[in-house]
Amino acid sequence: MKISLNWLKEYIQTDLSPKRMAEILTDTGLEVESLELIETVKGGLQGVVIGEILGIVKHPDADRLQVTTVNIGEENTLQIVCGATNIAVGQKVPVATVGTTLYPKENEPFKIKKSKIRGVESSGMICAEDELGLGTSHDGIMVLEESAVPGQVAKDYFKIEDDYLIEIGLTPNRADAMGHIGVARDLKAYLNYHNNLEIELDYPSIDLPATGSDHVHLEVEDEENCPRYSGAVITDVKVAPSPDWLQNRLRSIGLNPVNNIVDITNYVMHETGNPLHAFDLNDVDDKVIVRKAKKGEKIVTLDEIERELDPEDLVICNEKGPMCIAGVFGGLHAGVKETTAGIFLEAAYFNPVSVRKTAKRLGVSTDSSFRFERGVDPNNVAFARDRAICMILDIAGGTLGKIHDHYPDLISDKEVLFDPKMSRKLMGIDISDKDMKRILHELDIEFVSADEDAWELKVPTYRVDVSREADVTEEVLRIYGYNNVPLPEKLNSSITFRENKEVEKIYNEVADLLVSRGFYEIMNNSLTSSEIWDKIETHSFNPERDVKMLNPLSQELDVMRQTLLFGGLKSIEYNQNRQHSDLKLFEFGKDYRKDNAFYSERKKLGIWITGNKTPENWTEKPQKVDFFYLKGVVEAILIKIGVFRKPVVTSILNDLFEDGYSLNIAKRSVVDLGWVRKDILKEFNIKNDVFYACFDWKVVEDICVMNRIKSKPLPKAPFVRRDFSLLLDRSVKFRDIQDIATGVDKSILRQVGLFDVYEGDKLPKGKKSYAVNFIFQDDEKTLKDKQVDAIMDKIRSELESELRAELR
Asked: DSSP H helical segments within 145-218, as ranges?
């Protein structure tokens, strides 16, 4: 939520610096996310003063230029060369003095320098309105009123004021602070309590003229979802641009002015927190009906989109049909237009649940729905209405008709029993009764009755979140100051014994390993779009197993993710579009599925690699990542956490992969790794190959229990190495060779390795060449060649018979 500092100061008189004010607001629970200096005019017209033209002569060397003598309120006058055709002696004009920087175009500033123009010295510039940033006209210089005083600072003359934009991350419970007055109220409470002041808020005065009569009839059919509906008819209004001060107020918080009527409703909403809406009186047709929408009913909203309504949606109608979706969106055809001569001004209190459901279903969020969803103050409706009426009559003119107010059941202030002793226990600090009472008084919480153990309090309706003793305690503490709560001298903690390896420790070990290898950790949203399955064919993932959101924020975030893969691909796409194509990413997260009536979530670790292994450099040609690079990373992780014990390789069942395999440990699938399908990469506009590994992290945590540290003495004898160069069918895998070799001997054969692979036209068709080494070692004695040769002969024989291998 955006708050203007200058606007805020209309309600509370304070000389606090913007930074200190931001600190106070954060301390009271209105967290300030940013504080930004806003200049109404870029540069603030620094160096621009009011001048008076005393004399004009023709330039001796240029027909279109003239040489002026200008008084800027100093002892010496300025000589300025000017090419404007509308200059005249006696005019009061804005003058940019030497050294001034102007910003006539965005990101194109220019500095005024003392110079010679066609041989004549010029010390400044007489400005047009577009050169100052005060308008778009460049027809000539800007001629000011006769009352302008030479030497007056232009910033003061044009009433240019710098402002600070305070961005507040408003939590859903703080509906009371959805307007400038609500924020000022918190500021007042804090300053009065901590500085022992008696500051009062300067509420805008309301001075309504006598009401007249009109022919509008109000009907509220759904009082449950519209407990209060108020309105007023104003005729003979003149729709026009708003005065400068009103436009500046709206621009300061990022709103674009529309016209005086609409601007006033926006202004009052951001002032009081109560949304308002103005209908063209001609479109009301003498009847305003508040009811549920009919099935199949449609409305074209202000964004020119036709929306079909649901029977649960609350609408504001005339006899013909909907004019507005209550609390969410105005209708295009019933809004204020340039030809509008009369309006029906709406001020209401709608059921927050009703507004929230409609806004979520339509997938829209407006300033109005933002406030109604959180709960506006039903007893402030009349104030907001009357404030807007006064402003309209003052700015747009008009005649006030009848004021309508349907409020059959008064919503009273809430009564809360409060025990100060229990409150002190909750806070953990000893705040005196006197301080508590002072804070509650500053927060407009009244005392109905009070004794030593129980205070009966009355909480105003604008505090929708305060309904219990604990809530009142929170109110006291946030004004008292969380920073004033002392840290205890000691902390008590229970000691627990766990047999399992710490889950957090495993996570940190793996994360550190990956980061040390150049990986970046990413965190993607667990919500995704169900439409992804319309684009990608898969048998491994069933769209019917999606965990759907009951009230999705949007159509792009309507289900929980079934896989981490797509989030990582979006990250790759995002970086690739910004010329970062060499990526190593990992994410710890969960995926979610529904099986019949049961829901499940699983911890996963996703790893993505694409592009080059290392950045380009002059010493070597960059190498692209490949499957074996990913395989090395996966094995390094398993070794790091101590569970890489003879994993079993099985075919991969996940059809999001082009190819790859699964690693099983202790008869449980630990990780799938391989190439991501080309058609999937195409959906994300990814050009390079992407290699992906997905760990079932819950399995990893479980099998870590099996990890046992074993030690043994170093071997006393050296190892013996033998090599085979084998000609094999292309379908043969290295794993097949390993299995045969270890099946022949397990006593002294320690390792089987692959150190060269060749496939080319020098080999028979369908063949490949593997160079394989075999490492033998006895822990106690030196091996003899005869013993090793016998095993190698048996291995060769088995390879020839089982794999049709040929020695080369």
From this structure: 154-157, 180-195
